[in-house]
Every structure is written in C-alpha cells, then in structure tokens.
Amino acid sequence: MSRQEQYMMEALQLAMDNVRDRHTWPFGAVLVKDGEVVARAVNEVDANCDPTAHAEMQALRTAARALSSTDLSGAEVYASGYPCPMCLTAMYLSGVTRVYYAYSNEDGAPFDLSAENGYLEIARPIDARHMKLRSLPVRLEGQDIYEAWHNHVTAMNIKREDAS
C-alpha cells in the first residue's frame, strides 16, 4: 500500500469512527506536509454547533496552529469525501497543493452527502442565486480599510527586510 493510500485509509477510518462513535457525519481528513502528518480531523459541525467545522476545515485549523502559520504551501489533504466549495476555497487560500478524496459527489448523492449543489449555486449568476448577494458600498470616513491593510503589510515587509 502506498503512503497516499495509507493517508486516505486513515481519513476513511476517522470518518467511520465519527459515524460509529459520535453518530454524526461520515467525514475525515488528514493533512500532510513535507511527508509528515500535521493534522487529523473529523466533521464537528454538530458537536461544535459550527456549520464551518467540516473535516477539511478542522484539519486546516489544526495544521495552521501546529505550524504557527496560515501558509500551508505544499501540503496535501486526504479527504473522505469530495470537498465542498468552502473547504476547497480554504485549501486554495492556505496554499494546499493537492487534495485527494475517496468518495465523489456521485457516491454521496444518494445519501444527501454530495457537495454538488454548492458548486451549482456558486456557478449561477449572482442575481439567480437562492441566497441573495448584493453590494452595499458603504465606507468609513478617512482612510479606506483596504488601503490601511496595504500600508500595514508594506510597513511590516520593510521592517522584516531591515531586520535581515
């Protein structure tokens, strides 16, 4: 069995344990960076009363804390199911390089465990989506918040370069 298959088997076992022991969602994830397991996680949506506590999200959170960085560039995630749009986006934002999944959206569909509806909703034009998304371009007086962020990051980068 390859290392990739071993990591996936671990994600699947986490998912099965979540069903059997906690009587909840069948999702597990393992995050690997530089050949080492950095995080293992299960879906904790119900346990935490947190709709974002998907297995992949929990693995990202755990890994970021363990590495003291939100930059997980080069990491791989092994997920029991096809990631939803939220999880996939979070993995993109954190720098995850590869995502492996065992169960496809088609596998999950008969059990209402497919992420496909989220992808279909996001693909619709904004005005055709079920959840209404509208721009309300209000601004604070004075400096723009994005400009303030840019100035802060620029200043921090200069300080780092000066320290080198």
In short:
This protein has 164 residues and is α+β, with helices and mostly antiparallel strands. Helix content is 48%, strand content 15%.
Tell me what you see in this structure.
The protein is α+β, with helices and mostly antiparallel strands. Helices cover 48% and strands 15% of the residues. It has seven helices and four strands, in the order αββααβαβααα. It has a four-stranded mixed β-sheet. The radius of gyration is 19 Å and the shape is globular. The mean pLDDT is 96.
Brief descriptors of the model:
single chain; 164 residues; alpha+beta; four-stranded mixed beta sheet; 7 helices; 4 strands
**How would you classify the helix and strand content by structural class?**
alpha+beta
Strand order of the largest sheet: 2-1-3-4
Radius of gyration equals 19 Å
> What is the arithmetic mean of pLDDT?
96
| Total beta strand runs | 4
**Large-scale geometry:** globular
How far apart lie the N and C ends? 45 Å
The stretches of 5 or more residues where confidence is low (pLDDT under 50) are: none
Note the beta-strand portion. Answer: 15-25%
Biggest sheet overview: 4 strands, mixed
Helix content: 40-55%
Total helical elements:
7
The run of helices and strands is HEEHHEHEHHH
